[in-house]
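Weekly structure sync, notes
Attendees: PL (lead), two postdocs, one rotation student
Agenda item 3: pending single-chain targets
PL asked that the sequence for the first pending target be pasted directly into the notes so everyone works from the same version. It is reproduced below exactly as submitted, 73 residues in total.
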Amino acid sequence: MASFEVDLKKGINGIGLGENIERFVFLLGKPEEVIDTYKREDGTEFYQYYTQGISLRVLVDSVEAIFYYFQRK
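Predicted structure, written out during the meeting:
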């Protein structure tokens, strides 16, 4: 299963994608459910999602922005 860290400010897996990050998340589809939380050693917190066979670790601060994006569509 592919796994990605999503931070709307920094990009995916630390690679800045600018406006393309919204396109990437849109293509995956709306995250179906939170299945866990994840905290990196540096204290950064993520929500773990599973959608269309892909694992997404979404920065907690980015979750509201992602759901806002899907509400606009």
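Discussion points:
- The helical segments are 20-28, 60-72.
- The first helix runs from residue 20 to 28.
Action: rotation student to compare against the earlier draft before next sync.
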